[in-house]
Amino acid sequence: MLDLRFVRENPEIVKQNIRNKFQDQKLPLVDEVIALDEENRRVKKEADDLRANRNKVSKSIGMLMGQKKFDEAEAAKKLVNEQAEKLAECERREEELNEKIKKIMMTLPNIIDPSVPIGKNDSENVEVQRYGEPVVPDFEIPYHTDIMERFCGIDLDSARRVAGNGFYYLMGDIARLHSSVISYARDFMINRGFTYCIPPFMIRSDVVTGVMSFAEMDAMMYKIEGEDLYLIGTSEHSMIGKFIDQILPENELPYTLTSYSPCFRKEKGAHGIEERGVYRIHQFEKQEMIVVCKPEDSKAWFDKLWQNTVDLFRSMDIPVRTLECCSGDLADLKVKSVDVEAWSPRQKKYFEVGSCSNLGDAQARRLRIRVKGEDGKNYLPHTLNNTVVAPPRMLIAFLENNLCEDGTVKIPEVLRPYMGGQSVLVPKK
RNA sequence: GGAGAGGUAUCGAAGCGGUCAUAACGGGGCUGACUCGAAAUCAGUUUGUGGGAAACCACACGAGGGUUCGAAUCCCUCCCUCUCCGCCA
Fold it and tell me: Nearest nt (C1') to A79 (CA)?
């Protein structure tokens, strides 16, 4: 969501940005919206003048009535009535134009950061840096659900009977491991100065449209029947939504929060063989971090945020890399985004375990989140979000990287306090 | 689920067809005075959004409609919040 004034004053920047994102079909929308805006301002001026006149005459009628000059009052009424139809027509046109403008503005992509690599789709994302040695052991690493089954740690059959494909029962040590990771990640972020928060797991539609594009909404969000409520796809939704319609005191910035929630996603469409098991599911749990900050600080915060995830995974000895999202793969609301990917010794490649995004002022504009500046003027803050860890998917990386040849799984030092002191998990079968 | 009350700026709250929406009154914030400094006190200042170079204009009293020359105020529909009762982790 861009500022309309910005579009009006910088049409070439907006168009080049659209080309950079390979959305050329949206190019005509820029001139279209500028023309609509011009007409809208003209119509608005006319309507404003008519309304100003009506207000003036109406006020005088009140005075005339008070002075009991009824004849003059009647004459004034006639005058207002003569212009009523013209005003009504202007107002209809205003409404129509506003709607058209809003619709276009919702589809124009946010201006990407100059540092974002230009590319058509996810195949052109760019590796930034690797952390830790991606080891391939000389024994075979089974599929993650097979590892879990050795520990009697997963029951997908029952899950399918109860809820269908895309759900799981985690059992025993594997379930405990899942909870341990969440607890550890929570404390990890608290130690880095973030405020822990447990948010609502359902949100209203106006919050949904504020935090994501329509395309994403349709593909992701579960709606509660008969109510204006949606299950959150990530706690980012309720956490950024927390600030809807607020004017925030500048001295309270930045807000740095870490939240826990289950996440619900439709995951529409078919997915590949590598996305079975607990990789892509309708319900999972996640520790998230969000930041609301001054515009000038968002770039620095962006780098701090993804670094937290890298550090967390490294503290559990999982090799990771950062992958910069290219222009064509970047969601329309985002200014810049980096995925954190974990090493899979089985697939001998990295796979996504987290995503860090700088939304610029796009979410703030949609949600009407403002900051009262020192000079008394309000401005839009920037919003950022990043995955701390999403345990089900993280467990895949965890099990594959910590599996020993004898079938046991090492528990990293940092997780042991959360696992009752165990240093190793021994298979049950 | 039943009954009741209510939604007005940063907060509490008055207004209940025109002379109180540049929103009374109070709190908070900011500025100044007093003070070595602070508290207290006193004075001033402080809604948002859009249009305009500016003067200024328009819009917004939960949302949307209607009545009217004119609606915070009257009518209709919907949403939300609170209190009590019921039910229940």
Answer: B69
